[in-house]
Design a protein that fits this description.
The complex is a heterodimer of chains A (412) and B (281).
Chain A: E1 8-19, H1 29-37, E2 45-57, E3 62-66, H2 73-80, E4 88-94, E5 97-100, H3 113-123, H4 128-142, H5 157-169, E6 175-178, H6 187-202, E7 206-210, H7 214-220, E8 223-228, E9 231-236, H8 238-248, E10 255-257, E11 272-279, E12 290-298, E13 305-315, E14 321-326, H9 327-330, E15 334-336, E16 343-347, E17 354-364, E18 367-380
Parallel strand pairs in A: 3-7, 3-8, 5-6, 6-7
Antiparallel strand pairs in A: 1-2, 1-4, 8-9, 10-11, 11-12, 12-16, 13-14, 13-15, 13-17, 17-18
Helix pairs in contact in A: 3-4, 3-5, 4-5, 5-6
Chain B: E1 9-12, H1 22-27, H2 29-45, H3 52-73, E2 79-80, E3 83-84, H4 85-112, H5 114-119, H6 126-152, H7 161-189, H8 192-206, H9 220-228, H10 230-243, H11 249-273, H12 277-280
Antiparallel strand pairs in B: 2-3
The chains are: A alpha+beta (412), B mainly alpha (281).
Chain lengths: 412, 281
């Protein structure tokens, strides 16, 4: 391969889905027959998951593809993997490609670990000879040697995952495509997987990697592409993209409507939810109390919601919780009955300048009502309580007031 | 370590269908074997009698049908087409069972492996094909029953059965995969097809000369309609080869033509639609 030619060229790729009446997007014969006999076609709403994607990937690039849920990451990987066709545009790929979009696809519980390794390997495109040659290595990596002839359904989910990843990791293609597969598995195995992927990329291969795990992206990738609304929003170094992703992912401002923020938490009752939040200041001056008000909305129409717990967390972008405030700690008892009730709050603030993520949590009696996990972006404006010129030079998460003075020792 | 095909070039565009890449299917040839092997293994792993089922099924069918037909026609099961009715019946059952099981396996193979279609790239034609291979494994097993019955009834087939048995199996295979690909592709797109298939197979059974002889039908156009069903020819060719060594070339030609027609229709429709399976499966 010539030194500077891209190994993957993505040009004007677009993908349209039809949002039909049915969830699957398939048709029933009745729909077809209706279309045949009536002039009024059942119009399906079109939705462009990808609009116009362009980028080049060069040999040994390790590219992270980032974006919020629904940004089109998985669709893009599926198109590059030839699982689904684009609606427009073209992609040119020079090299053998292997995709791991889901761990353990094609595994079967009735077959033994050994049989599954051969089956899965051949599904992923390996020859029997190649699997045979790597078999011991795969089993050692997955750490399942004692169970290799046991049916897979007796394996723990962790063991299945290890075995599945081990097969895929030994594919040795020129281009490896990995979708969010590290979200599962315990921490030590995740480390092992990242290590293996690092070996793969160090040996000169090309990697396309989708993950929400920032640490994994930082250690594996040398470039990142941020997708937003089906377009490439950013294509540059990893740190810049991660920062931009973390910020763009949040809701910020002085007054934020909270009702439209998606809640992807299954345990919530959502009878009573957060309606909106207003801050006195945005950004918040350094050292000034974080003050504002919260409105709730009664969705279920219940007359009253007793024993409210209202909690707020403030985390750093790295996920360190710096503040945790809850009505539970104050012993004050609220119950909600009218939506025009204003819940005022004030949090003493000695955070250092920068961006923080706020969580809102609501419980009534023992029911989890609403939970907005790190959805709100708080910005603490530049400044420090000491009057020092360069706030950025001051270390530490918080800037507590302090003083240092001298005293002349008095004889006592 | 990496395969020598380092210069592999893939060009992805919106329209990609139509081309049947033999080279690609060849490079995935082991997958036919693995899918078929998986299905055979899983099927018999969960059963108490295991592979014996493949022998028992045609045997039980043979006794049951012979009993019922004898009861209907009165008297003991007599000779049909110059052979005991049991042998006559087995010729039909062997091929029909492979056809009906293979067809319903193949038609369901895409929906059954939908998870794989959505996550892994491989030639999708492999799925209906290896589903059919599974039912033809049973056919090979039931050939033992057939051989046993020939010995028991002391029937010596004519020598051309050596050609006609493989030929009728080939015709059945082409018809099964052809229709299987067609129905499999259709049932990804139209869910209704799934409900039609078991019903349709049952209907087909009665318009295939499995338990009866095509000659029993004194109906001149129905006989012609029966010929559009490739199973008619396949079964008849096998039966003819037992009683006489004369080859019905006309029947052979028509049947081969028809099953090739189904096969090509199936493969063309499958290739035209497979590109979108992952989106709608």
């Amino acid at each position: 391969m010539a030194g500077k030619d891209p190994i993957i060229q993505v040009r004007q790729i677009g993908k349209r889905f039809h949002l039909g009446a049915q969830s699957g997007g398939y048709l029933s014969l009745r729909d077809q027959l209706q279309n045949l006999f009536s002039s009024q076609k059942t119009r399906k709403q079109a939705f462009w998951a990808l609009k116009d994607i362009n980028f080049d990937v060069y040999e040994n690039d390790r590219v992270a593809i980032m974006g919020r849920n629904g940004a089109g990451k998985s669709t893009l990987l599926k198109i590059i993997s030839r699982i689904t066709p684009p609606t427009k545009g073209e992609i040119r790929i020079h090299g053998r490609i292997a995709s791991l979009l889901e761990v353990g696809t094609g595994f079967h519980g009735e077959l033994s670990g050994r049989e599954n390794v051969y089956l899965n390997g051949s599904i992923l495109g390996l020859r029997k000879e190649e699997i045979k040659r790597r078999f011991d290595e795969i089993v050692a990596f997955a750490d399942v040697a004692d169970f290799i002839d046991t049916p897979l359904r007796h394996y723990s989910s962790g063991m299945q995952l290890r075995l599945a990843f081990a097969v895929a990791a030994h594919l040795e293609p020129e281009i490896l495509i990995i979708d969010e597969v590290l979200a599962v598995g315990d921490a030590s195995f995740q480390q092992k997987c990242i290590g293996k992927m690092k070996d793969i990329s160090d040996s000169g291969r090309t990697l396309l990697f989708v993950s929400h795990n920032m640490a994994a992206i930082r250690s594996l990738c040398n470039r990142a592409i941020l997708l937003k609304d089906g377009l490439v929003e950013l294509d540059t170094d990893v740190e810049t993209v991660i920062n931009s992703y973390l910020e763009s992912n949040k809701f910020s401002g002085k007054e934020i409507s909270l009702q439209d923020i998606p809640r992807n938490i299954s345990i919530l009752e959502k009878e009573l939810v957060f309606d909106r939040i207003r801050f006195e200041d945005s950004p918040i001056p350094q050292g000034k109390d974080i003050e504002g008000a919260i409105w709730l909305k009664n969705i279920a129409g219940r007359e009253t919601y007793p024993y409210l717990t209202l909690a707020m967390n403030i985390d750093t972008p790295e996920g360190i919780c710096v503040y945790h405030a809850s009505t539970e700690f104050t012993g004050r008892e609220f119950s909600h009955s009218a939506d025009d009730t204003v819940y005022r709050f004030r949090i003493a603030n000695n955070l250092r300048p920068g961006n923080y993520h706020m969580t809102l949590f609501l419980k009534s009696s023992a029911k989890y009502q609403d939970w907005l996990r790190k959805e709100i972006l708080l910005e603490i404006a530049d400044g420090n309580p000491y009057g020092y010129a360069d706030s950025g030079a001051i270390q530490g998460l918080t800037l507590p007031g302090f003083d240092i003075w001298t005293e002349t020792a008095e004889a006592s | 370590m990496t395969k020598p095909q380092a210069s592999a070039f893939i060009h992805i565009t919106p329209k990609h269908y139509g081309l049947l890449s033999i080279r690609e299917i060849w490079s995935f040839r082991e997958l036919f074997y693995y899918f078929a092997w998986r299905d055979i293994k899983i099927r018999y792993k969960q059963t108490f009698l295991g592979v014996a089922w493949a022998l028992l099924q045609p045997l039980i069918q043979m006794f049951l049908f012979a009993f019922v037909v004898a009861a209907i026609r009165g008297g003991n099961s007599s000779e049909v087409n110059g052979m005991p009715y049991e042998i006559f019946l087995l010729c039909g059952l062997l091929l029909w069972n492979a056809f009906s099981a293979g067809l319903s396996n193949a038609a369901g193979s895409l929906n059954q492996n939908a998870a794989m279609l959505k996550k892994i790239y491989f030639p999708k034609l492999i799925l209906p094909f290896s589903a059919v291979i599974v039912s033809f494994f049973d056919l090979l097993m039931s050939l033992l029953v057939f051989a046993g019955a020939l010995i028991y009834f002391q029937v010596v087939p004519s020598w051309i059965i050596l050609a006609m048995l493989p030929l009728s199996i080939l015709i059945t295979f082409l018809a099964t995969t052809g229709l299987g690909m067609l129905l499999g592709a259709l049932s990804v797109k139209y869910r209704d097809v799934r409900y039609i298939i078991p019903f349709g197979i049952q209907m087909l059974f009665w318009i295939s000369p499995v338990v009866y002889s095509a000659e029993w039908l004194n109906h001149h156009w129905l006989g012609t309609v029966l010929l559009a069903n490739p199973m008619t020819g396949a079964i008849q060719l096998l039966r003819d080869s037992i009683a006489s060594s004369a080859v019905n070339w006309q029947l052979l030609g028509i049947t081969l033509g028809i099953c090739l027609g189904w096969f090509i229709l199936g493969i063309v429709y499958f290739k035209r639609t497979e590109y979108y399976f992952a989106d709608i499966a």
